[in-house]
Amino acid sequence: MDTGHRRVGDQPWVRRTLIGIALLVAMFMLVIPVVVIFAEAFSAGWSTFAGNVTDEYTVHAIGLTLFVAALTVPLNLVFGTALAWSVTRFRFPGRKLLITLIDIPFAVSPVIAGLLYLLLYGRNGWLGGWLASHDVQLMFSWPGIVMVTVFVTCPFVARELIPLMQQQGSEEEEAGVVLGASGWRIFRKITLPNIKWALIYGVVLTNARAVGEFGAVSVVSGNVRGETNTLPLHVELLYQDYNVVGAFASASLLAAIAMLTLVVKAFVEWRQSRPIVSTPEKEVS
Amino acid sequence: MKPLLKGLALGTALLSAQPTFAADRELLNTSYDIARELFAAYNEEFAEHWQEKTGETLEVKQSHAGSSRQAQAIIQGLKADVATFNQVTDIDILHSRGDLIPENWAERLPNNSSPYYSTMAFLVRKDNPKNIQNWDDLVREDVALVMPNPKTSGNGRYTYLAALGYAQDEFGDDQEKIDQFLADFLGQVRVFDSGGRGATTTFIERGIGDALLTFESEVLNIADRYEDGEYLVITPEVSFLAEFPVTWIDDYIEQNGTEELAKEYLTHLYAEDSQRLLAGFNYRIHNETVKQETSDRFRELKLKSVDEIAGGWEKAMAEHFASGGKLDQLQRRR
């Protein structure tokens, strides 16, 4: 066997070194930091942790964060599905542009997103003066936080659905049309079951980001404790106060949400891949 | 979609189940980032005072961030009733750019509307190995300094002006010597952090530098938190008068209907008990009785104001801290 036929990764030492490096990096970059969060959170004992987590302001921050996610996720679920549906099932001028536009929140730094909203809806902003004169307060209160969170997370659902719906094609829906089903029925009986798992996956990602968003929210929040302070902002605030244990206690809540997300994500991925493997005959030919 | 609805219900429930014991009145105080504990204590005291006076229960909400950022937020519509900042310039722009308060805001309360003040001091390591006592020790070749960046933080600007004030006393009219001193001083700075808390972290956690230059209140707090003698506080004879200005925000208190409340909140900061509370957080205060009580902690210093040192904030900003100003020139010199 001459070396000419060998590929680069064939030698065992190459493999071992690469795996070793990957493991080492993963260890120091991912595993240890997560362990540290929980170790620090519980470093002063369980009762201190409980005290920190049940602190009036922490409880409010948790409530606000969940509230924002609870508004953001359904909004983006509807918006993302509608967008994916429109760009994959219809042909219209500007369709390509729309697909590109949906990526703007990914391309723009969240801080910039927050500033844009502030410059538009703030008291001295383009629309802000008119809003203020009608006594509408969007920035520095929860509607502003929801607005920027919706902006930052709006691509997730659509981005999950578009490739899948493109790949699936519209034959099944067309068959439904031929058989005389209504639009809503087609969506419910054909489209929705087809995209179900991708949709849930998109929702999981949207939720994770909505809960964890810092930059954009920080700009429009106003940092009022017990009013507009979300959990990520609360972590920073506690850290600034030298309350490291409290900061890590709140951070551990975020980490716990993140891990829960990962479990759901793994489960969804498993479900997504299963029907294709186990029941290939159901695939569209 | 059911879990989603559940989530929504849960979120709404959590938000509405907040421990908002319905107070009769509400007040929003925007403040600088490291004043949380101070105002947490004061708010409690003031709520009692207010209830005694009017019978109404009161909840004071707090917002904390860098005071320049807070000023921006207020201008953009954060409807705060009062601002309690650590930089005069940040309250000035509420007038100049926001038109929310009158130009003479500083005259509305005693002591330039600054109920408490502080100065710039040094924190050195155990036993003061480099024997740092005064500003002229900081320009020695073997001394490494940590301070916030004067470009980005008021804290850093104060230290720069304090050093300038010392040099003016030392060298009189000799501008060349003053400049050389400042250039040497800046040359000894190992780390310019973006803010006060960052500089503290660099000095304490990362163990960099022989002296940390920041507010006296901050270095006293740090020294208190560690074992006796772990860190020493050095207050130089000559330093800078760092004012902590407060104001009510006229446009917003009118809208919020909190005029009387907001004014009382700030005026009460000058009361003896409040001054004692402020001194407990290591700020210097004006009340003579409390001054006597705390004289061993705060020794008498020669504190120079920005007017004495640089002819006012506007001039100081333009001459020293603007792009291409004195600070930039001096830093390029070495």
Overall description:
The complex is a heterodimer of chains A (285) and B (334). With 285 residues, chain A is mainly alpha-helical. Chain A folds into 2 domains: 1-41; 45-282, MetI-like fold, CATH 1.10.3720. Chain A contains 14 helices and no strands. The longest helix of chain A has 35 residues, at 244-278. The model of chain A is unreliable at 277-285 (pLDDT under 50). With 334 residues, chain B is α/β, with parallel strands linked by helices. Chain B folds into 2 domains: 23-117 and 243-293, D-Maltodextrin-Binding Protein, domain 2; 120-240 and 301-332, D-Maltodextrin-Binding Protein, domain 2. In chain B, helix 2 links the parallel strand 1 and strand 2. The radius of gyration of chain B is 22 Å and the shape is globular. Classes of the chains: A mainly alpha (285), B alpha/beta (334). At the A-B interface, helix 3 of A face helix 1 and strand 2 of B. Chain B: It is found in: Periplasm.
